[in-house]
Write a structure and sequence with these properties.
Radius of gyration: 16 Å
Helix content: 25-40%
Oligomer: single chain
Strand order of the largest sheet: 1-2-3-6-7
CATH class: Alpha Beta
CATH architecture: Alpha-Beta Complex
Structural class: alpha+beta
Order of helices and strands: HEEEEEEEHH
Number of helices: 3
Length: 173
């Protein structure tokens, strides 16, 4: 397993719609393992393919927060939301591609998602709370959308400028 570098906004790859995974190969399984390792190392609760330069419809997540609870790593390939609740939830979101920036985003409180697992089997599950927020956030990544796209243009511009500055500082190191 390899920890992959995480792309930082602004990067054109983070704004592109990803292609469906056509075949679940050993390469896809390795990428999923790398993505989980990268997500845990960051640390984060979700990571989408484009964040590590993989332009495929795949993301990983594990939203278990309780200290004594076992981790629940999930790999979702070609995920699609099949249902959303009318009830909304406001959650403070962050993103590994937009480090140390957080903002409240309103999304459906619950979603049902269908995806392929690493064996090509169809899975479907209903998520609530942080799991629902995370799944929607990561699926947005696969569609070229970032959480800051839900903010006012001024807030989005402010955060983008901070990220440009961060990238310049990192480039000097």
């Amino acid at each position: 397993m390899t920890i992959r570098p995480i792309l930082i906004h602004p990067d054109p790859r983070l704004k592109k719609r990803c292609d469906p995974v056509t075949e679940i190969t050993d390469e896809v399984r390795r990428a999923a393992d790398d993505m989980l390792q990268t997500m845990y190392d960051a640390p984060g609760v979700g990571l989408a393919g484009p964040q590590v330069g993989l332009m495929s419809r795949i993301f990983v997540m594990d939203c278990v927060k309780e200290e004594d609870a076992p981790p629940r790593p999930m790999v979702l390939i070609n995920p699609e939301i099949t249902w959303t609740s009318e009830a909304l939830n406001v959650h403070e979101e962050g993103c590994l591609s937009i480090p140390e920036q957080y903002a409240e985003v309103t999304r459906p409180a619950e979603v049902r998602v269908r995806w392929l697992d690493l064996n090509g089997g169809v899975q479907e599950e209903q998520f609530g709370g942080l799991w629902a927020t995370c799944a929607q956030h990561e699926i947005d990544h696969l569609d070229g959308k970032l959480f800051i796209d839900y903010l006012t243009p001024l807030k989005r511009q402010l955060i983008t400028r901070k990220m440009e500055k961060l990238k310049r500082e990192r480039a000097r190191l």
